[in-house]
Design goal:
single chain; Trna Endonuclease, Chain: A, domain 1; 4 domains; seven-stranded antiparallel β-sheet; six-stranded mixed β-sheet; 31% strand
């Protein structure tokens, strides 16, 4: 992306920002090294009106509007020069793909310090065991990154695999520690040729960060290995053991099922207005679905590009219709001043987001899982003949999490058994345990009768069996480590890994299945 100066037309600044937001949907916004917004949890709006480009960012914590005067790309980051209203001195916002703003030197220093502290804590907690081969160097061949310190505790021929992660790492990295711990245990067992007998894994996470690993560990196979979880207090250096015999407290947030028809009736005026503005070809390819009883979404191959919603008018109990547009986290109100920007986005969207489109186009690349979901939702029997007859719920809030909060698809088989579907269009090392999170929570909701009480699957007699867990991805984008992790799940988790033909955008076709021993 070339630099865009203050002398440029405001629409050029707006388009440059829109393209960056489309290319990186999980952008973090910094000012003076301080994180202001994480766009996985916040929203943004870009407008070009009255001779200036406005950037509006808002979340539950703060709200900010700035005039954008210049944009300078730097590798994968964007340096945005802005001005507050009524001020002439510029402020610099830095937009980058994730929330870890540490310099490489600072990261390396903190990780080395953490590894030394981890070794000291293990030596105190397990004095009869010898620490061996601790390191945190990058090992791409075996999927080990420098964020994780790993090694062994050895006593004679007995051994434990150990993996720890420091408190300075991003939440997603800490949540992913158990996946890397399972792979580290498998690596140790495979490469030591029986010289040591590994009892299992001792996983160390920062104090206060054990709940995700605890819930996941409770569903691992105890016949395959012993699984132990510890929290490290960075101040005292103490290791505190956490019980993994049960699931702990599952953070479940399930809203009541809504009536889609009610949403269409409330938003009918705005839906008709938006339909009338779309070119005929785009309208034909668009999926129009209710997101709630007060909001209707317009999506092209899974990418929501516009929304019609009912909201309360300011200082009134009357309702008013609002139409917003934008790809990814960007959201701009549609009115006379933004109509040209909307039509320009529609043109670029229709030209770029189709099965034969170019992978260089950010609108083609954006949200591939939602594209895959839109393909499968039409006919789930393409995955399994037992599916496709019952209701299908997509993007269901399943539990509270900073990084993940929506279940891809939830449905039932023809025999009334719940099925949880987790979809990935690209390689994801953490797919099995992320899917396990949702499965465990749906199981809890089902066993407690909460799904029926909240209005899900009305008129369907649900079987008492635990839900099926289906993991779906293109064959060449299933991470080689996924099966290693899946084989460590408890036999009571009925999982199935489904590989699709790489041309799934054109036609969905299953090319390979792998299943757990018990279903």
């Amino acid at each position: 992306m070339p630099a865009v100066s203050a002398a440029a037309d405001p629409s050029a600044l707006a388009r440059a920002l829109e393209n960056f937001f489309a290319a990186w949907p999980a952008i973090a916004v910094f000012e003076d090294g301080r994180l202001l917004f994480d766009l996985r949890l916040a929203r943004c709006s870009v407008t070009a009106e009255h001779g200036r480009c406005l950037l509006h960012l808002w979340s539950d914590e703060r709200n900010m509007v700035r005039t954008v005067t210049a944009i300078t790309p730097r590798r994968e980051t964007l340096r945005v020069e802005t001005r507050r209203f009524g001020q002439t001195r510029p402020q610099i916002l830095t937009l980058q793909p994730d929330a870890d703003c540490r310099t490489p030197t600072a990261r390396d220093t903190e990780r080395k310090r953490y590894q030394r502290g981890l070794e000291r804590a293990l030596g105190v907690a397990f004095p009869e065991w010898r620490l061996q081969s601790f390191r945190s160097a990058m090992d791409l061949e075996n999927s080990f990154g420098p964020a994780y310190a790993r090694g062994m505790l050895v006593r004679g021929q007995a051994a434990w695999a150990v993996l720890g992660v420091g408190p300075e790492e991003p939440p997603a990295t800490i949540e992913g520690a158990l996946t890397l711990g399972i792979l580290w245990l498998a690596h140790c067992r495979q490469h030591l040729d029986g010289r040591q007998v590994f009892h299992g894994l001792r996983l160390v996470v920062p104090r206060g960060c054990a709940s995700v690993a605890q819930n996941r560990m409770s569903w691992l196979d105890r016949a395959a290995a012993q699984w132990e979880l510890y929290e490290l207090d960075p101040a005292s250096g103490d290791l505190g053991a956490r019980c993994v015999a049960d699931t702990g407290n599952l953070a479940i947030d399930l809203p009541h099922a809504f009536d889609p028809q009610a949403g269409f009736e409330r938003c009918a005026v705005g839906v008709d207005q938006l339909r009338g503005m779309l070119p005929a070809d785009l309208l034909e390819a668009t999926e129009i679905r209710a997101r709630s009883a007060n909001e209707i979404a317009f999506a092209l191959h899974g990418l929501e590009y516009a929304r019609v919603r009912q909201k309360w008018a300011p200082r009134s109990f009357a309702r008013q219709t609002e139409i917003v547009f934008g790809a990814g986290p960007s959201e701009t109100a549609l009115d006379d001043t933004t109509e040209d920007l909307f039509l320009d986005l529609m043109d670029r969207l229709f030209r770029g987001r189709h099965a034969e489109g170019s992978a260089c186009d950010p609108l083609y690349r954006l949200q591939p899982e939602r594209w895959l979901e839109s393909r499968l939702r039409r006919d789930l029997s393409l995955l399994d003949p037992a599916l496709g007859a019952g209701p299908v719920y997509s993007q269901v809030p399943a539990f509270a999490s900073a990084s993940r909060s929506l279940l891809d698809l939830l449905t039932v088989t023809r025999q009334g058994r719940l099925a949880v579907l987790e979809l990935k269009a690209d390689d994801d090392l953490h797919l099995p345990l992320q899917a396990l999170d949702y499965w465990a929570r749906v199981r809890e909701l089902h066993r407690g009768g909460e799904l029926a009480r909240q209005g899900y699957f009305a008129g369907v007699e649900l079987a008492e069996d635990d839900p099926l867990l289906l993991l779906v991805a293109p064959a060449l984008h299933i991470h080689p480590a996924n099966e290693i992790v899946l084989r460590q799940l408890a036999p009571s988790v009925p999982w199935e890994l489904i590989a699709l033909d790489e041309h799934w955008r054109e036609q969905v076709r299953v090319v390979l299945r792998k299943r757990s021993a018990i279903r």
